Amino acid sequence: MAACGRVQLLLLLLLLSLCLLTVQALKPLPGFGNVHLPAAAMHQQFRAALPNPGNNAAAAAASSGSRRPTGWKLAEEQACRDDVTRLCPKHSWTNNLSVLECLQDKKEDTEIAADCNHLLWNYKLNLTTDPKFESVALEVCTSTMLELKECADEERGKGYLMSCLVDHRANITERQCHQYITKMTSIIFSDYRLICGFMDKCREDINTLQCGSIAVGEKDLHSQGEVIACLERALVREAEQKDKAHQIKDECKKAIMRVAELSADDFHLDRYLYFSCRDDRERFCEHVRVSFSNSFLSSMHTCRNALTTRQKLIAQDYKVSYSLAKACKADLRKYHCNPDTSMPRAREARLSFLLLCLESAVHRGRTVTGDCQGEMLDYRRMLMEDFSLSPEIVLVTRGDKGTVDNLCQTALQTLIQSADPGADYRIDRALNEACESVIQTACKHIRSGDPMILSCLMEHLYTEKMVQDCEHSLLELQYFISRDWKLDPILYRKCQNDASRLCYTPGWNESSELMPPGAVFSCLYRHAYRTEEQGRRLTRDCKVEVQRILHQRALDVKLDPELQKRCMTDLGKWCSEKTDTGQELECLQDHLEELVSNCRDVVGNLTELESEDIQIEALLIRACEAVIQSHCHDVADNQIDMGNLLECLVQNKHQREMNDKCAVGVTHFQLVQMKDFRFSYKFKMACKEDVLKLCPNIKKKADVVICLSTTVRNDTLQDVKDQRVSLKCRKQLRVEELEMSEDIRLEPELHDACKKDINKFCSSVAYGNAQIIECLKENKKQLSQVCHQKIFKLQETEMMDPELDYQLMRVCKQMIKRFCTESDAKNMLQCLKLNKNSELMDPKCKQMITKRQITQNTDYRLNPVLRKACKADIPKFCQSILGKASDANELEGQVISCLKLKYADQRLSGDCEDQIRVILQESALDYRLDPQLQVHCRNEITRLCAEEAAAQEQTGQVEECLKNNLLKIKQDECKTEVLNMLKESKADIFVDPVLHTACALDLKHHCAAINPGRGRQMSCLMEALQDKQVRLQPECKRRLQDRVDMWSYAAKVAPAEGFSDLAVQVMTSPSKNYILFMIALAVSLLFLVGLLCGRITKRVTRELKDR
């Protein structure tokens, strides 16, 4: 053992001498029976050990000692008699040890005579330097010397024996030996000059730092504990400030730390700490056994600085904490955490190294004794409570701007790993106090200190149960835990094997440049969502934990280290005002195209992951809890989501359980999905091969949907046997098209084209439920040309495929189930139209059907059935109208009006005639279905038929009113339309609903055998009207007579424009037979006249020939 490497050994010598000198006050030691020196001889040895005092007091003390056969007494010395009488209780006067302890533990405001101080100093110095007392130490600690081989082998006479015994004080089992060694140690530590070699090693540093006086008499000799305290503070400053602080010599550093270690067991031994905290200790810790681990509990203002210095020394060397070193001694040896000669002492002696080593064992499932874990908990909490105990943090916070962030981040991360608050939240006192109420209410079912408490708190983050202080503290802690997967004990325990197998991670307290802590979790979640075909998947328990962490990270971007690192600039640029819960990520997703490439990749990957497992969006799931429980609980309970939950939420977005927060969240995710088809997991999985083959350079989902749907439509129209788009993709494509029809924002091209029109005409209309689209349809005539064209194209698509008409399908959902369960999706509107007038038809659905009928009749292109049936007739009869048509404008029913006239002329093909008949029948009941009539007769209807129009009974009353007021109509265009209606009614009685209703019984009785169409049933009724033997219903007869008068007037007002029109009028006239008879009679008379004229002409010609 190096000379003076420890405390001066002769504490034990002092024990023996005082034992012999104070037999009256103390019980005799069993070992002392073997001591052969008589009391008088021992007294002489002690007096010989004392140097000749340099003053009268000392001399008096020496002489008085020789005169006392019972032993020399400090209390009887003239130099100290007054101080002893004044300061020490009388029962202690006969015990030199008690007197010495009483005088050196005096209060700060109590002065002791200088002569007494000097006497005490010489007394203690001689006790610690006289080797004669080693033999006494051997007698007192006989059994101990047998047990401590290393102490028995120490060289005698140099003080090494006592130093060894002090080192092994914790292992001494002899009560008297342990008691006296402990008692006498306090004498040594009262003055740094009594410690072997300390002054020689630290003299230069003491002078440089001005830590105290060395010459006797310049300072209170018994306050020299302040010198050691000064050196300890300098040692702490050096660790915190590095080159900016005074550099203490290595040998002095070792001496300082050695003193701190040896004084660790009893805070009496640290004189500066003892005097600083004595009052606080007596006030708050009166009944607590004296030790440093307990004294830390008393951290009042008066002794806070002294305690902090001691804590900082412990942080630099764990052995400075006696209780920790003792409790964890066996565990340190068991898990190889003891000093390693190949490593710098400063590193592996640090408290953080000890904690990391032992925590690593705990996390690996190894056993650490309860006492050691208790001590570790105390010191982990200590590190968390005061950042200044970690010199790395203090150092970097004083560094240059620009380099602080990374260094500070690393230092804080190391502190969190050392303290490991993830394993026990109570280590973070701020979190524990702030979250106590939340834990008591939301997490009371979890055992206190369990790691699941933190997960429970995260589950209630941003809920009503969370309080603001707890929220802040929790996010501060989670910020660091999220950056090192090992700091989450549950995740580490469940995933350490997977991480080692798939990510090649190092041990818990080890690091690797190839696989830093932040990269490990990225590796785990990449493997968490692999398919069975891809292989190398996580175990089920690990995947559950990975999903839990992803859910937590989705609560705040700061909890996703990769996202925050790469997107810091974009967050400041685009999202500086988006600071509410969850808004930052939504903002980044909204600006995906504008983000820098690194940030865009991270946000894109996260969004793609969310599309597969929307439960990662914890805030959204929390907001949608009601609708999930009501409509999506089956898919929500599945271990593997595969995008099913999001699809269910979209489908039930307008259920009554859906609240605003949930609806906004689901819609936002739908809008984000439009930016990249990969963000729609089910669509991506179903169509990725088709996209690569058919739409290789298209990324946006809307464009991909258009590309694929166009391919499907073209293949269908061309009757291609093998569709280019796969069946599974076609099915999912249908789902995407239906979802897009719900909100105009899901069709970016349409939305961009109509933004100004939306602001102008639909500013008060909410998005969703296709309400904006419906608003634009209703204001179609006022829309800008670009928007109008897009809306027209949209309507054309919806009419070809009514299932894409979201409003129609929503409003008529129940009616479709009632009337059209067997109808094909493309014939859905046709089916609803056929059942429109049913008594069971819902009024709202009926109104919606009427709207769609009005739309269809504005342009034949919006009526796919008519367009197909009249494919040949339209260019044949209406070419002049087609020549004026454009994609941007409807034809306002001009083509259909043209076909109506040809229907009246009976010139249409059979299929086209059937479709026009249907249109005529529908428009006869509701004038709004006739665009030309509505355009030209709007003012006349308001003037002449306001009451009928307001009734909206859809029974043809407005048309009947116009017919009855034909003579009062002033506008020629309107009059022409009414005349056309009359003309059309002559061709088919069904076109005249009022007449048809009035004559229904007569048709059944008199014209049952007559097929409808081409005016046959109307001719039958007119013949019955003229036949006096046939009795018609009065109402029918009156209506028929009115029609005859109207037709007569129409003939006068609108004469035939040509022979063809004349022939049509004759053939469709109720007096067709009469007219034909008269025409035949006229032709016959003309023929007879011709014959007579021919005979006369022939006779004159013959007479001329005879000439």
Summarize the structure.
The protein is mainly alpha-helical and 1107 residues long.
Provide an overview of this structure.
This protein has 1107 residues and is mainly alpha-helical. Helix 1 crosses helix 11 and helix 54 crosses helix 55. The radius of gyration is 53 Å and the shape is rod-shaped. The N terminus is likely disordered.
Shape label: rod-shaped
Q: What is the percent of helical residues?
A: 55-70%
Distance between the termini: 181 Å
Structure annotation, total helices: 66
Q: What's the main sheet like?
A: none
Strand content: under 5%
Structural class by SSE content: mainly alpha
Uncertain runs are 1-70, 213-223, 292-299, 341-345, 400-404
On the 0-100 scale, what is the average pLDDT?
78
How many DSSP E strands? 0
Q: Rg to the nearest angstrom? A: 53 Å
What characteristics describe this protein?
single chain, 1107 residues, mainly alpha, 66 helices, rod-shaped, Cys-rich_GLG1_repeat_euk
Reconstruct the topology from this structure.
Elements: H1 11-21, H2 39-49, H3 56-66, H4 78-87, H5 96-104, H6 114-129, H7 134-140, H8 142-147, H9 149-152, H10 160-167, H11 175-188, H12 198-209, H13 225-241, H14 250-262, H15 271-284, H16 292-295, H17 304-316, H18 322-327, H19 329-334, H20 345-348, H21 351-363, H22 370-385, H23 391-396, H24 404-419, H25 429-434, H26 436-442, H27 452-459, H28 468-481, H29 489-503, H30 517-528, H31 540-553, H32 561-574, H33 583-590, H34 597-612, H35 618-623, H36 625-631, H37 633-636, H38 644-651, H39 660-673, H40 681-694, H41 701-717, H42 727-740, H43 748-753, H44 755-761, H45 771-778, H46 785-800, H47 806-811, H48 813-819, H49 828-834, H50 843-858, H51 864-869, H52 873-877, H53 879-882, H54 894-904, H55 910-925, H56 931-936, H57 938-944, H58 946-951, H59 957-964, H60 972-987, H61 993-998, H62 1000-1006, H63 1016-1026, H64 1034-1053, H65 1059-1068, H66 1072-1106
Helix pairs in contact: 1-7, 1-11, 12-14, 13-17, 15-17, 21-24, 22-24, 29-30, 29-31, 30-31, 32-34, 40-42, 41-42, 54-55, 54-60
